[in-house]
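hi! just following up on the protien thing from before. the input was this:
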Amino acid sequence: MTYIFNVTMREREGTKVEGLLSYRGEGYGFYSGPEWGPKLLMDAWSWGVGDNDKLPAKTIADFEALFALFMGEQIWVDDQGYLLDQDTKEPLSQRIQAADRHKDELGSSSGFDNGYHYVMLKPRSDEFRRRTGEIIKSFTLSTDDDKQADFIIEVYDPRHLAHLDRNVDFKTTFSGLLP
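and the predicted 3d structure came back as:
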């Protein structure tokens, strides 16, 4: 896995968190769109940064949904491409091919996890942007050089920051851009 940025969440107060992005390479630059905000918050959560026990179930569901929008949803199928129940991984009573149900949504990735086959749906960037507008009130990024940038994420609901403690650090593979 290639990490692009080191991330430090420095200070959280109310609905705002301040932090620092440090580029781990050269010449990449800093994307300044609001999509950076939820990606940093959900990535911190996914790596167990901060105190995830403080997160309400609704926030965890938000982060899981954001990941599915950004990365593409994982759909369980049998070895012939028929959909399985997404919770039990048992065959559906009505056999439906993933290619028929999800026609233009199928991505190019597939794999196995715990003995079950899955296919990935395409990322949904437009929906990710829409959800960003529901969660992120503002995202500002300021930089004096090409190696570091300060940022401030302001959310509408402080529950999206509940897992972040002062001075938590993690690395991210996210660049800020959407697929």
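The helical segments are 36-46, 57-71, 98-101, 125-135.
The beta strands are 5-13, 16-23, 74-77, 106-113, 116-121, 136-142, 148-155, 168-172.
cheers
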